[in-house]
Structure formats: structure tokens, C-alpha cells
Amino acid sequence: MHKRLGSQRLVALFAGGWVLLNFPLLGLWDRDATVWGVPAFPAALFLLWLALIVALAWLVERPSVRDDEAPASALPSVPSTPLSLSPSPQSSAPPPSPRA
Predict the structure, then answer these.
(1) CA gap 70, 35 in Å, rounded
(2) What is the pLDDT along the chain (100 residues), one digit of tens a residue?
(3) How many angstroms separate the CA atoms of 21 and 46, rounded?
(4) Cβ neighbours of residue 52 closer than 8 Å, sequence gap 6 or more
(5) Which of 50, 72, 76, 84 maximizes the CB count within 10 A of its CB?
(6) 19 Cβ contact partners less than 8 Å away, ≥ 6 residues apart
(7) DSSP letter string over 39-86?
């Protein structure tokens, strides 16, 4: 299930990048303004591209819980009583024989 959610997030990131880097929203930056001496349009392209790469890296590299592993909160608690190494009185099986 978690793998499917990761795939859906990647598809959503792709769709968001497609929308951000297409005409209607890029038209907002097509002005004669400058940002630190750089024209606004190339600066916006670079910053949007950088934001998409950072979001992609975060989605791909973050740790995820696999389907065959239980999250730490779902693990059984460790008993607080010490374990005894002596055989219990209920077991009637003989001890294993040593092999030569």
C-alpha cells in the first residue's frame, strides 16, 4: 500500500511540475523586472526547477515503511521480567543430544 502512495505522490509532483512550467503560470514572470540583476523569467524558471528537484529528492529519499515490516509503534512491548534459562516444568521433551 505504501508503494502505491509513493507512486501517486510522484505522479502528483510530475503533474504539478507540468502545470508550473507551462504557459499560463510562466506568463506571470514574463516582465522586464530583475531579481539581483537577473531577469525575472529565467530566475523564476531556475527557482521552480530547483524546487521540483528538491521535492523529488525528498519524496524519493525519505524513509518509508515497507508492507512486510510493522511500524515501531505496532511492535509488541518487551516484558520487564527477566527470562529464565532453566527448563519450564510444563515441557516434557528431553534435551537435544550432542552430536560428535
Answers:
(1) 49
(2) 456 777 888 898 889 888 888 887 778 877 788 888 888 888 888 988 999 999 999 988 877 655 455 555 555 666 566 655 666 566 566 667 777 6
(3) 10
(4) 13, 16, 17, 20
(5) 50
(6) 25
(7) EHHHHHHHHHHHHHHHHHHHHHHS----TTS--GGGSPPPPSSPPP-S
Q: From 40, 19, 21, 18, select the one nearest 29 (Cα to Cα).
A: 40
| Cβ-Cβ contacts under 8 Å for 71 (sequence gap 6 or more) | 65
pLDDT at 64: 64
Please, which residues have CB within 8 angstroms of residue 16's CB and are 6 or more apart in sequence? 52
Q: How far is CA 26 from CA 20, 22, 42, 45, 58, in A?
A: 7, 6, 10, 8, 24
pLDDT at 79: 58
Grid cell 516434557 in the structure block, residue: 92
